[in-house]
Amino acid sequence: MTRSETLPPGRIEAFSDGVIAVAITLLVLGLTKVDQSILVR
User: Could you tell me which of 21, 18, 22, 1 has the C-alpha nearest to residue 10?
Assistant: First the structure.
């Protein structure tokens, strides 16, 4: 593939969907459980 060739839109969309899926997964795995004693007063 040369620099003048471009990827089809479907491949670009699939790649960006994959990147977003990985980012969301990492964000969800980074969540921690909220201590309920802080919420109850």
Answer: 18
Q: 0.70 exceeded by the pTM? A: no
Following DSSP, what letter does each residue of 1-41 receive, concatenated?
--TT----HHHHHHHHHHHHHHHHHHHHHT--PPPHHHH--
Distance CA(21)–CA(13), nearest Å, equals 12
Structure tokens at 17: 């969907």
Q: Is the pLDDT of residue 23 over 70?
A: yes
pLDDT exceeds 60 at position 34: yes
